Amino acid sequence: MNVGPAVLAPVLAEPPVAPSRRIPGRKFLHALRHSKKATAGALLLLFFIVLAVFPGQIAPYNPSAMTFAPGLSPSAVHWLGTTSQGQDILSQLIWGARQTLIIAFAAGGIATCLSVLIGVSAAYLGGIADGILSLLIDVLLVIPIFPLIIVIAAYLHNAGTMDMIIVLGALGWSYGARQLRSQVLSLRNRDFLEAARVRGERSGYVIVGEILPTMTSLIVATFLSTAVYAVLAAAGLQFIGLGNPNAISWGTMLYWAQNNEALMTGSALWAIMPGLCVALLGAAFALLNYAFDEISNPALRPVKRLARTPFVPMDLDAESSNGAASNGSRRDGSPIGGALVGDRGTGADGG
Amino acid sequence: MRFALRRLGFFVVTVWAAVSFNFLVPRLMPGSPVEALIASHPHLGPQAIKALTVLLGSNLGHGSLVNQYFVYWEHVVTFNFGISITTSFGTPVRTMVFHALPWTLGLVGITTVVAFVAGTFIGLLSAWRRGTWLDSALPPVFVITYAFPFFWVGLLAIYLFAARLGVLPNGGSYSLGATPSFTLGYVGDVLQHAILPGLTILITSIGGWILTMRNNTITVLAEDYVRMARAKGLKPWRVMWHYAGKNAILPNLTGFAMSFGFVVSGAILVEYVFNYPGVGYMLLNAVDEHDYPLMQALFLLITVAVLACVLIADIATAIIDPRTTAAEHA
Fold it and tell me: What is the interface pTM, i.e. ipTM, of the complex?
């Protein structure tokens, strides 16, 4: 399932900084702390990562042990109750985090690498190579991926986790490749690249050392959206029974819950909790991505209005006074580059 | 004109790719449908195995792969998809697919259009009124709902409305025992069964439209012509709709085409959760039963439908915005 289009397309708003002065991730960490959405997303993701790395210490019981009474309601002993085979739901949920996160990061990683490889090469090589590669990208982009994955998984007869990672990774790169390609195309004639070529740098260095660093935010955004897609697609596949039903993961929990009519027989939490976790994990990635959008496109940053500013219709002569009024409205200290749009935003309703 | 031809050419190429893929995958994968059937019935004698092989494997005639490929194309063009081998043994696949198609078209078609229209409008409104509660509350909410798995929202809906409140039915497209006809009773029954699935698709997919439209409109609002329109003293409503809206909606149209595939994928799961007898439900059933002819036909149908929608949306964009065709010429 490809995530929807231009929502997740950050626009490169500032000129590239020379690599030597750039501390990787500095702006990202800064935005993380100051944007509420990014903090929420990061904390959520961190929570799940902790669950995935230390499940043995956190989970109260062995997730596969069918030693408890089946179909128990939530109680102090079993916080979420038990399944119809007598397994503890909470332990399954905690151990399931590991499987899901592995799939998300591995498939996301593979797809992102492929995106970078194909997208950047297509744009850099140009000519016929570009034509062929972009045709490939477009074809894979319009063909609905999920039915394709279903058909492949059906032929694989009980796909394991590794199969799923490979299939998801090999099919999810098209959107990112397209974005990266258009970004590189716009960069191709910039002066700093020309300078590098004149200096005599090899193509390899130009791509890896000059182009890629300017696109880190786009690459990270691609990774985040591919991770969302991988999580949802994997959960969907496991839900319809195409994963490995004996593995412990959120998707397989949903599969067993559905097969045992959990919703109708009173064990509603068995079906609701894994889905909630999938939703939360997806939401964490999506929030981080949203924050990334705001970093790279200042126009999208939240507009804060001063509490008691009267609604003055936009006066074309008094630009400066309007600008002064909105000066103090940025509490997160981000540059006023977005104030211009914010200006028009507040004037829009008054007009 | 050249633009339309290019788009048509692309459509043909993608359809060719999809059909070829449909042809290649079963032949590349380990095992074959015959082996799958044999594995599930361990007591077959050699005569039975031979009969099954003839039944299942000789649809395309023997001969080289290339030969089979051409025969396959001939079958596709004449809508000869063979017969279902397990789901409903002996029924022509074509008949089964045509039975399921109207349900999916109704459910997915209507909800997608409604989601697109409503989402675009809300996004436009939300960008127009930046800084108000509408803009600060809605986008984060919809960013989150957009990441929700379709089927989970469906499960929640069933739990809330069917299991707990008992207000709406928990599955199927019409009540057991109701006879399909054009009476008000039957139509009402169908609509009642379609509310929950439709709502599920609507809630999960609307987020995308709202966010794209909002982002586009924000960019458009900074343009000079919007400023000019306001300076001319036009009513805000008119500026928002005719100037900003019509320009901001363009990327959304292309986006609509591209995410149609996404909506179809989600709809497959929703149909599965609600046992709604549409194309997606049939596909998943076919996968479960290893009914390969049915599976292939459905996959082809879904793919070609999505591709056709993309083509239509592209041409619609070209008609609305002549700049796209100009860009092609440049």
Answer: 0.75
